[in-house]
Amino acid sequence: MSLTSREDPTVPVLYLIACGAPPAAELLSHPEAVPGLQSDGWTVCVLCTPSGERFLDPAAVSVATGYPVRVEPRRPGEADVLPPPDALLVAPVTFNTVNKWALGISDTLALGILNEYLGAGLPIAATVWAKPELQKHPAFDAHAQTLFEAGVRFIQPEDDDPRFPWGQLRAALAELLGE
């Protein structure tokens, strides 16, 4: 079996892209995050921004998912260790990533993947985790709107709920895939 083939082609692959914000620390500990996604039938592969990597234990995530956490691009000619995705979940997505993503900037592996698969039309769900002051920045709303119009499904936490909406994201993925 090559590194790019799937162990079970009937199991959908989800790229969970984590940016540098506290919810990234919950990938394994929150029952609705990686464990819940796996119980929904996903093969979960985690990629993260360099800032996102600081919030998680890459070795523990690799053990839980069966795949290495990708932060850096692979070398030329190197096989990809991750199977191709069927959908993407950006959880959490930060102010910085929303703005760069909308502009097509690919200065990290995570942004390159997001740009590529947005262009490919794959289902993408995301939840912004940014201070209210940053979300009021004049560039932010326009960039989030650009991504929304391109097909990104943004999930907002329930009114006044300070917790990250892992359960809502799981439900949104099922809807995006027509399940």
TrEMBL record:
Stretch forming the signal peptide: none
Pfam families: Flavoprotein
Organism domain of life: Bacteria
Domain Flavoprotein: start-end pairs: 30-110
TM annotation in the entry: none
InterPro entries: Flavin_trans-like, Flavoprotein
Protein name: Flavoprotein
